Amino acid sequence: MTDLIQKGFVTRSYLGISMLDVNEKIAKALGLKLPSGVFIDQVIPNGPAAIAGLQEKDVVIKVDNILVNKGNIVQSLVAQKKPGDLMNFTLIRKSRLLKIPIILGEKKDTHLSAPGQEKLPTFSNLGLAVENISRQLAEELELKIGEGVLVIEVKPFSPAYDAGIQVNDIILEIDDHLITSDFAFNNIIAQLQRGNIYIFKMKRGETIFHCFVEISQ
User: Fold this and answer.
1) DSSP bridge partners of 165
2) CA–CA separation, 22 vs 95, rounded Å?
3) Distance CA 207, CA 32 (A)
4) pTM for the complete prediction?
5) Could you give the CA distance from residue 181 to residue 191 in angstroms, rounded to a whole number?
């Protein structure tokens, strides 16, 4: 209300991340003992979190010494602050406990869009098919040549479907292994063990996010 009176508009604090609540599948994939905390799904480039050093796959467990288990709790705590305020994040990164101070920015509108395309062979234990990305599509999606593969088919009710993967998504990484071609993708998929959960780094439109895929038995 003070902002509205003094400036004629409301300023909102900005952190620059997207989050997922840590469930049992995510906890298992990350080697956590319990499904607790908030998984950092995306860190917006040049945002306050990125500048402070937060990374994708970090798990936030406390914000200003308040335990957090849901992304909306983090959002609520950020919303109570003003741009320029300092917040202290306690997180787990690859089994290490870190404390990172973040100076909040000011909220600006960001527009996320979606892609478009087609289809071909699937892995029965995964339920999706991919193809290499053409030079023209790579330019349209602002990708480098050899960066990722295009999802061209997702079988209903398959592990890929259950994880939220969609046709026209781009698979960039699988468990930190860069995907540079359908050949590289096939080689990595062939090594995945049934019953395990793997982290897929994805791109959909302008959004980078992660999917947790449990390979069928």
Assistant:
1) none
2) 15
3) 26
4) 0.63
5) 16
**HEC states along 66-119?**
EECCCHHHHHHHHHCCCCCCEEEEEEEECCEEEEEEEECEECCCCCCCCCCCCC
* Nearest by Cα to 203 from 110, 133, 105, 127: 133
Average pLDDT value for residue range 95-116: 70
Q: How far apart are CA 8 and CA 26, in angstroms?
A: 43
DSSP secondary structure code for residue 202 in this structure: E
Look over the chain and give the mean of its residue pLDDT values, rounded to a whole number: 84
pLDDT of residue 217: 63
| Alpha-helix runs per DSSP H in the chain | 2-7, 24-30, 48-52, 71-79, 135-140, 159-162, 182-191
Q: Confidence band (pLDDT; 50, 70, 90) for 145?
A: confident
Kindly tell me if the per-residue pLDDT of 136 is higher than 90. no
Tokens found for residue 32: 């956590």
216, pLDDT greater than 80: no
**Least confident stretch, 92-106, 116-130, 136-150, 187-201:** 116-130
Nearest to 108 by CA among 44, 153, 168: 44
Domains of the chain: 2-106 (2.30.42.10), 128-214 (2.30.42.10)
Please give the C-alpha separations between residue 211 and each of 26, 164, 201, in angstroms, as whole numbers.
Answer: 9, 7, 7
Look up residue 72 and give its two tokens.
Answer: 């909306």
